[in-house]
Amino acid sequence: MLKKITNLNLEAKTVLLRTDYNVPLTGKTINKYSFWRIKATFKTIRYLVNKKSKIIIVCHLGRPDGKVVEELRIEPIARFLAKSLKRKLIIYNNQASSYDQELKRITQIVYFMPASRQDSPRHYVGGVLRNMQAGDILMLENIRFHPGEQALSQVFAEKLSNLADVFINDAFASAHRKETSITLIAKILPSAAGFLLQKEVKALNNIKKNPRKPLIFVMGGAKAKTKTKLIQVFLSKADGVLVGGVLANTILAAQGIAVGKSIIDKETAKSINGLEITNIKLHLPVDVIASPTKDGKSPVALRPVGNVGKENMILDIGPDTILLFKTIIEKAKMIIWNGPMGYTEVKKFKHGTDEILEAIIKNKSAYKVIGGGESIVLVHQHKVSQKIDFISTGGGSLLKFLAGEKLPGIEALIKNKNINF
Description:
The protein is of the alpha/beta class. The chain has 2 domains: 5-196, Phosphoglycerate kinase, N-terminal domain (Rossmann fold, 3-Layer(aba) Sandwich); 203-402, Rossmann fold (3-Layer(aba) Sandwich). Helices cover 33% and strands 17% of the residues. The chain has 15 helices and 18 strands. The protein has helices at residues 35-39, 42-50, 75-85, 125-131, 154-161, 180-184, 195-209, 224-237, 245-254, 266-271, 319-329, 351-362, 373-381, 396-402, 408-415; strands at residues 14-18, 25-26, 29-30, 54-58, 88-92, 109-113, 137-139, 166-169, 191-193, 215-219, 240-243, 282-283, 287-291, 301-304, 313-317, 334-338, 367-371, 390-392. It has a 7-stranded mixed sheet with strand order 5-6-7-4-1-8-9, with helices on both faces. A 6-stranded parallel sheet has the order 12-11-10-16-17-18, with helices on both faces. A 3-stranded antiparallel sheet has the order 14-13-15. Helix 6 links the parallel strand 8 (166-169) and strand 9 (191-193). Helix 8 (224-237) packs across helix 9 (245-254) and helix 11 packs parallel to helix 12 (351-362). It is globular. The two termini are 17 Å apart.
């Protein structure tokens, strides 16, 4: 059974809170359509504040691969949090002491303090922790700046665990990953799920156990490696799987179909095994929008699949594909969508994705589930979030959960024995 935040005695305890604030940035500005993902954790944060806990937030941003990347510092997120939670923001550059040498890369620290307080904690993580008061919030720098995060370092896990009394995981979007702050800490500290993680698990469990038929999966986006492995699973569970984006390009390329210089996951294309491209439930693009460049400045052409040309890349689905996908969507009773159909960063290549979203919204008899950053940004851009039955903060976690896979972050909480706290 998943252990919940309400199962733990958190009064005046120091809590390590894992969140997923991996949102797109433009310079030092958060995409406004991603605010919802950060706000989704506020119920947990406010609960901890009311319990007079001292809160240490841990999150990641992008893929810095264990190195400090200035463009991936969490300061923009910290500023949004401070404004939203009405806290004074103090940013410290790390001054390493013997206390925090192992944590040096992630101790450029962001400290949120009630505006009425004037005291100034010492300028290193040990000093700040010793000076924290009930309800204070400390945010560590991008956890992936430390090489131990993705290397599943036990030493790093113990160092992080030494900062707190208890661990709360509220990062459903990262629950499918085996990383130190997701899985290993939960084996050391008394641990439980935050309110967001609980909400996701409850909703998706219900969807998995009580699917409505016809059930349709709409899958796109760029992360082909994870999704191609799941398509076969969904073909056995669903009545249709509609595929677009880099995911479709990769499957087509793996079948020897010419995709020009389209973006594909080459490693995945080489390793796709057992995918029945002739399965009547699997629907790939039949025509595409192609162009030599993805900036929208080059000529655009409509091409049948297999006749893209070496100089072109596939950047959107074509009108026949849109019509095919719409026909299937309008008959569905449950629709699960993850990932755009094309390169939506450029308006010229958003049409297919916009049409599919419109078709999903128009089907008023279907239960609609959407997950994944890009898809949800589009939902908020079109101001139709209220017409979606469930919006998940996860993309990969959503699909893996519905496919019946065990998510490492959730399993770590279930197996945690340190509940008597």
